[in-house]
Amino acid sequence: MSSQRMGIFVATMTGTAELCAEEIARVLQAEGIATELQTMDGLGPDALEPFQQVVIVSSTYGHGDIPDNGQALFAALEASDRLSELRFAVFGLGDRTYAATFCEGGRKWDALFAAKGAARFATLYQHDASSGTLAEDEAARWASGWAPHLKAAA
Q1: Dist. CA 31–CA 148, nearest whole Å
Q2: Which of 140, 154, 114 is nearest to 8 (CA)?
Q3: Please, are residues 6 and 53 in contact by the beta-carbon 8 Å criterion?
Q4: Sign (positive/negative) of CA torsion 20, 25, 31, 35?
């Protein structure tokens, strides 16, 4: 394993985002990148401090909202200036049936990290539940596209 360590943080209502995070972790571990996966329940900004790189996996709930378990962390990070040293990527889940709010949870995380000065290492992925593909399969494919480059840059 390399000395690199990736934090994977999950905002979910039904558990699908957690399945996606597990697949992302599996891909990263196969590349020799140690991972720590955490659901966002009860987390504050200090949960990100041990990591130089993080992946946010977030579904969208309600009217384009971040899932309940991620709302407190999101609000705390909005009020924080602790993100400028981080590199990040976001995997968003949504359903194009709800066009006005499609993947809005993931987009909010992506915009927040960018606005706070964090550097994006992979493009925001927006999975469509109506596409006929499994979100966890797409998460693994997405991570496979950038994980080898992260290892090479370490």
Answers
A1: 6
A2: 140
A3: yes
A4: positive
Rounded Cα distance between 22 and 15, Å, is: 11
Q: Mean per-residue pLDDT for 38-47? A: 95
Exposed, middle or buried: residue 152 (CB in 10 Å: 0-12, 13-18, 19+)?
Answer: exposed
Gap between the Cα atoms of 25 and 20, Å rounded: 9
Q: Which residue has the tokens 């990290």?
A: 113
What confidence tens digit (pLDDT) does each residue in 78-133 have?
998 879 999 999 999 999 988 898 999 999 999 999 999 999 999 999 999 999 99
The total number of structural domains in the chain stands at 1
Q: Which amino acid is at 20?
A: C
Q: Which tens digit of pLDDT belongs to each residue from 5-16?
A: 899 999 999 999
Give the CATH number of the domain where residue 39 resides.
Answer: 3.40.50.360
Q: Give the domain extent around 129.
A: 5-153
* Integer Cα distance of 93 and 128 in angstroms: 6
Residues in the chain: 154
